[in-house]
Design goal:
Blueprint lengths: L1 E5 L9 E4 L9 E10 L2 H10 L10 E2 L4 E8 L12 E4 L2 E2 L5 H4 L10 E2 L11 E5 L3 E3 L6 H7 L2 H11 L7 E5 L4 H12 L3 E6 L2 H8 L6 E4 L5 H8 L5 E6 L4 H10 E9 L12 H6 L3 E4 L5 H14 L5 E6 L3 H9 L6 E5 L2
Parallel strand pairs: 11-12, 11-14, 12-13, 14-15, 15-16, 17-18
Antiparallel strand pairs: 1-2, 1-4, 3-5, 3-9, 3-18, 5-6, 6-10, 7-8
Helix pairs in contact: 4-5, 4-10
This protein binds zinc ion (ZN).
Length: 347
């Protein structure tokens, strides 16, 4: 089968075409013909550039984590009733199902988790072999491209909003509003009845994002009056919730300054360093909370797909390219040009 692999870390040029054997699905596994794979700034781009920290990481690698396609064959002992030929979305993380966290149902915290395209061969290829438990039939009306663009970040957005006990009409500030997770969080938060405020760097991105009708309000985080803007938008109330998947110290300072009493911050990423200043006196005296969210529970996954079916939640898809152009897509993300999720298709 055709695939794109890396043999070492480096710039987008380290991505190279390769001919690989079609994988054989083992016990409990399925063979999926890949239709689309979404390109993730951490699991794909950072992974290619310098690697990401998971046990069992090695080279060479077939990248590509979040994907969707068609179920074409089953290994032994799958016990599944999904018929061959079904369009399926593939979850990218494979928990061990044996450790203390997995046994108590918290598979998102499994320290032995395997990730497709990181510690197992990924989806920059015509086929993947994955546990059948990772498959979910794609609902009618959802394309393979859309499924690949939301099957990980959609449930993560729900998990974050559940973790902070989000309630309708609360003000949620979403940092990195134009990113794949930012745009997805906006769609999910709106479908749950929250008031959405997005922050982006620079007024050019504000203008591009405004056209998409994702956020009730958008602010430029580089504007010196941004805190005052947030206070005006929330009519002096402040932010009930901040979703920070950025990890930038200055932006975190804005989050805590804008947070209201009993406000909550959820964090699922720290691409911009992750070291921040925190005033514990403010935290306890105002009853505020900061919550790290790593992945999504089964409950969040089920709730997300219900929002897809009942509220029409879909991802913002940036550009769609063939697999042979995947290096250009990496360049696009590195240049910060994407709005929403870029997707690569395999035909
Ligand atoms: Zn486990």
């Amino acid at each position: 089968m055709r695939a794109m692999i890396i043999r070492r870390h480096g710039g987008p040029d380290v991505l190279e075409p390769a001919e690989l054997a079609v994988p054989t699905p083992g016990p409990g596994e399925a063979l999926v013909r890949v239709g689309a794979v979404s390109i993730n700034s951490y699991l794909d781009v950072t992974n290619r550039a310098q690697g990401v920290h998971y046990p069992g990481y090695g080279m060479p690698q077939v990248l590509g984590s979040e994907h969707a396609g068609t179920l074409v064959a089953l290994g032994p002992d799958t016990g599944t009733d999904i018929p061959l030929g079904t369009a399926v979305s593939v979850l990218n993380s494979i928990p061990c199902r044996q450790c203390a966290w997995c046994v108590r149902g918290d598979e998102a915290s499994c320290p032995h988790v395997q990730i497709m395209g990181v510690t197992r061969p990924g989806a920059y290829a015509e086929y993947t072999a994955v546990p059948v438990m990772n498959l979910r039939p794609i609902p009618e009306g959802v394309t393979v491209v859309e499924a690949a663009g939301m099957n990980v970040i959609g449930p993560l957005a729900v998990e974050q909003l559940l973790a902070v006990d989000a309630r309708p009409d609360e003000y949620v500030v979403v940092h990195g509003a134009g990113s794949a997770t930012g745009t997805m969080t906006a769609r999910v938060a709106r479908s749950m009845g929250l008031r959405t405020i997005g922050t982006v760097r620079g007024d050019r991105k504000v203008a591009r994002l405004s056209e998409l009708d994702l956020f009730d309000e958008l602010v430029d985080s580089t504007d010196p009056d941004v805190l005052q803007r947030l206070q005006e938008i929330t009519k002096g109330h402040g932010a009930d919730i901040v979703i920070d998947n950025i990890g930038d110290e200055e932006l975190f300072g804005l989050s805590t300054a804008a947070l209201c009493a009993a406000g909550r911050i959820a964090c699922s990423g720290a691409k911009f360093g992750g070291e921040v200043r925190l005033n514990l006196r403010q935290l306890y005296s105002q009853g505020q909370r900061i919550i790290g969210v790593r992945g999504s529970t089964q409950e969040a996954k089920d709730r997300f797909w219900k929002l897809v079916e009942e509220k029409g939640v879909r991802p913002v898809i940036d550009e769609i390219h063939p697999l042979s152009n995947v290096a250009d897509v990496h360049r696009r993300i590195e240049a910060g040009l994407n709005i929403g999720r870029p997707v690569v298709t395999i035909d």
